[in-house]
Amino acid sequence: MSKDKTNLSRRNALRLIATTAAAVPVIGCSEKAAPKVELKEDKLATKPAVKDLDAPKQTLVRGTPTDPDLLNPVVPWEMQLDARELAVLAALCDVIIPADEISPSASSVGAHHYINEYVSAPYSNNKADLVTIRGGVVWLEGESRRRFQGPFVELNASQKIAICEDIKWTRTAKPEFQAGARFFAKVRVLVSTAFYTTEEGMADIGYVGNRPMASFPGAPPEVLKRLGLES
Amino acid sequence: MASEDIENKEYDALIVGSGAGGGMAAYVLATAGLKVLLLEAGRSYDPVKETPMFNLPKDAPLRGGSTPEKPFGFYDATVDGGWQVPGEPYTQGSREKGRRFDWWRARMLGGRTNHWGRISLRMGEYDFKPYSRDGLGFDWPISYQDLAPYYDKTEMLIGVYGTNEGLENTPDSSDGVLLPPPNPRAYELLAKKACDKLGIPVIPSHLAILSECLDHEAIPQKLFPDNKLAQDVTRESMKSRAACFWATPCGRGCSIKANFQSTTVLLPPALATGNLDIITDAMVREVTVDKGGKANGVVYIDKITRQEKFASARAVVVAASAAETSRILLNSKSTLFPDGLANGSGVVGKYLMDTVGAGVGGQIPALENMPAHNEDGASAMHMYMPWWLYKEQLRGDLNFARGYHIEFGGGRSMPGAGAFGGMGDFTEGAYGKDLKQACRRYYGSFVWFDGRGEMIPNDDSYCEIDKDQVDQWGIPVLKFHWRWSDQELNQAAHMHKTFAEIIEGMGGNVTTTVQTDGAKAIINGGAIIHEVGTARMGSNSRDSVLNPYCQSWEVPNLFLTDGAPFVSNADKNPTLTIMALAWRTCDYIVDQFKRRNI
Ligand SMILES: Cc1cc2nc3c(=O)[nH]c(=O)nc-3n(C[C@H](O)[C@H](O)[C@H](O)COP(=O)(O)OP(=O)(O)OC[C@H]3O[C@@H](n4cnc5c(N)ncnc54)[C@H](O)[C@@H]3O)c2cc1C
Ligand code: SF4
């Protein structure tokens, strides 16, 4: 099936949404229905009854952590990491997810800023991770100087890899590298989320969804064939 | 209570709660011409305006990931809810492992229907008469045949896709009721192939999602042959619903109204009749009774002024979600009803049930390195496995009496918070180009299987009023007591074993721990969020709260239309049954009004 037939563009989809809401008389949401509806505003001074689901916001506060504005998300907490820490993390992010022929590097899509956002969040897990990340950065800087007499950001690729080889997996890291390995594992988890939730990361692995289509085609013939599932 | 608080307007019926049960009651009663007032504890909410359909994870804090304030992620439609509701605590009777009940609530117009999973399965003949079949639990006072016409009507109204397969205790819908299911995805077909060998049926799932637009000319006629008002408002409402466009996660809500939400499907046509008023931010504390012992209204807290108010009606319908409904009844004490309203049997709060849940994940090499293709679909299962070992169970070949169905997932869904978080361990520490290649290779090759099984009601699973605590509205809170029996624990262990077999049958490797000890496999009580029971119906007033029409034995103008009347909790997810039962109850209420019994 050709793409044109099945895929509405995102803009068309939004238009579809807009027109369904506006053009089709949506009962409970349109002027057409409003006159029929009993208003209780005059009787209840403190609060209007819901006359339609479109009603203006009621008077209780919105935009709380349990009721955030989903259409206009904001990160409500302050960032904790400073520029030097971020520079080290950016360099480490790029060792973990470097640029290649298919997609850019993690830092170029801002993965280190996501790490900052994550460890700055006010929840207990995140607070614990802040300690892991900050401590890890200090350790990484120290290790770089001990081994190669320079800060991590200034090491060449093979020097960076020499350190990362020692901390790449907690299960195989030597005892003296365990803390470094836990730090590295945490960064890898956060970088992966950061990178693969961007358009660049999604394109890299071949995520092609979130596109409206008139009908759902199911598994393509090529895929069925590879799985030995052709009917 | 001050008399000036009493509304001047006279209502026939007052409904508490606007979710599946309350929304359906509002729709049926308002379209039948009754004057209805609905009180909802949460805020007003409009999915058409408020749903972030296409927003990406990266647009949200923490990539949309879970937090204590938004347990199912930032974009989840739940408002002021989750396992905890700010200012509305509940307590546990025991700290022992396996004895807690996690209570999920949503404080918003439409309740939990704004973000539910939309899996809509009918209970079957056996499910209404479980005691007769194996001597455990209790029979319902009604049979499948009593509810079948209401299942048809509910499915036609909300729109459910699926097929009729003629399988044991997995009822077919009447011809022309179901919408066609979407095509299966690759991993679903692969699972089917593995299940074929194991004798496990894999059939199209039944989901309350419009795979096509509803026939807005024919259906309203069929639903309401003699009621023009109901036909008109239903027709207009159906016209306003678009078919699914196979993108965007349903748990955020659906602004094109393709999936079922009380706020898009039930409340708009009910409002359009002009017979329904809704007051939101109205937390009901208790149902009040007159001298003759009939319900005459409710006391609620206006959350904006933080003051008590009173609203009255000729009949009261409580649908605040099962346990909350019992909380209201137990808090409604009077000289006539010292142990709580309608609680002469002492059964209010008793036989609380959830669904048995256990899951196993796996990785399937055959699914590695697939060419890019779109697997979004209806953002939920296109296929599932209904319970299949009825005969074995009847023969006593299994060490548990009731069945489970299998819900499963996997595939190339949109990466969100936690994407590839397990890749480090999975690859023994890959980073750099190796990590990138691993992500490309393994993306889409992970699957998981979740069992959803029947829990048999027991004396140790119930809720009661905690005498020592009130919530921020001054209302005494619930204390939960919970215990799984061996029936559920053995079932959970069986789930793990089965899922491992399916994964291996797909040529895959299990990636989570397969438990032989059911207590380790089973998920906490309440965690599946299929809370039902606590005010069951029955055939006599000694051991039940309600008659077969969900009418209180003791208070003839009091009705419950949520999950509270459930006598048992089949493996089938409860909401379709809640709505079918609510419709039937409300037809009965209308009839009682006509006969002037209320
Ligand atoms: C994530 C998730 C997935 C689910 N998936 C499925 C599924 O796939 N299939 C299925 O069948 N079910 C599913 N469910 C369960 C389903 O949502 C419930 O069974 C259904 O919504 C119950 O309907 P209800 O009317 O009893 O309660 P609700 O829908 O919860 O509505 C109750 C309403 O009453 C209001 N209320 C409560 N107390 C008061 C009070 N004191 N005064 C006034 N108002 C009050 C609440 O604010 C709420 O709006 C799921 C639930 C969740 C959370
Ligand atoms: S997948 Fe379909 S039903 Fe679900 S939210 Fe998207 S459009 Fe609506």
List keywords for this structure.
heterodimer, A: mainly alpha, 9 helices, B: 598 residues, five-stranded parallel sheet, 26% helix, globular, binds iron/sulfur cluster
Total number of β-strand segments of chain A?
Answer: 0
Q: Total strand count of chain B, please?
A: 17
Give the biggest sheet of chain A.
Answer: none
SSE class of chain A: mainly alpha
Question: How much of the residues of chain B is beta strand, in percent?
Answer: 5-15%
Q: How many helices of chain B does DSSP assign?
A: 16
| Radius of gyration of chain A from CA coordinates | 26 Å
Biggest sheet: strand arrangement of chain B:
5-2-1-9-17
Query: Please, what is the oligomeric state?
Result: heterodimer
Q: Give the end-to-end Cα distance of chain A, rounded to a whole number of Å.
A: 18 Å
* Helix share, percent of chain B: 25-40%
Runs of chain A in which pLDDT lies below 50 for 5 or more consecutive residues are 1-48
Beta-strand proportion of chain A: under 5%
Small ligands present: flavin-adenine dinucleotide, iron/sulfur cluster
Helix % of chain A is 40-55%
What is the average per-residue confidence, as pLDDT of chain A, rounded to a whole number? Answer: 81
Distance between the termini of chain B: 25 Å
Low-confidence stretches of chain B: 1-6
Pair of chains with the largest interface and how many residues each contributes: A-B, 100 and 113 residues
Number of helices of chain A: 9
Can you describe what's shown?
- The complex is a heterodimer of chains A (231) and B (598).
- Helices cover 47% and strands 0% of the residues of chain A.
- Chain A has 9 helices and no strands.
- Chain A has helices spanning 3-6, 10-22, 83-96, 111-120, 124-148, 157-167, 178-196, 199-205, 221-226.
- In chain A, helix 3 crosses helix 4, helix 4 (111-120) crosses helix 7 (178-196) and helix 5 (124-148) crosses helix 7 (178-196).
- Chain A starts with a helix and ends in a 5-residue tail after the last helix.
- Chain B is an alpha/beta fold and 598 residues long.
- Chain B has helices at 20-31, 47-50, 125-128, 130-134, 144-158, 186-198, 218-223, 228-239, 262-272, 322-331, 390-395, 423-426, 433-442, 486-505, 518-521, 575-594, and strands at residues 13-16, 36-39, 91-92, 203-204, 276-279, 282-289, 295-302, 307-312, 315-318, 356-363, 383-384, 404-410, 446-453, 462-470, 476-481, 509-510, 558-560.
- In chain B, helix 1 (20-31) packs parallel to helix 16 (575-594).
- The longest helix of chain B is centred in the last third of the chain and has 20 residues, at 486-505.
- Chain B is globular and about 75 Å long.
- Mean pLDDT of chain B is 97; it is low at 1-6.
- At the A-B interface, helix 2, helix 4, helix 7, helix 8 and helix 9 of A face helix 2, helix 6, helix 8, helix 9 and strand 5 of B.
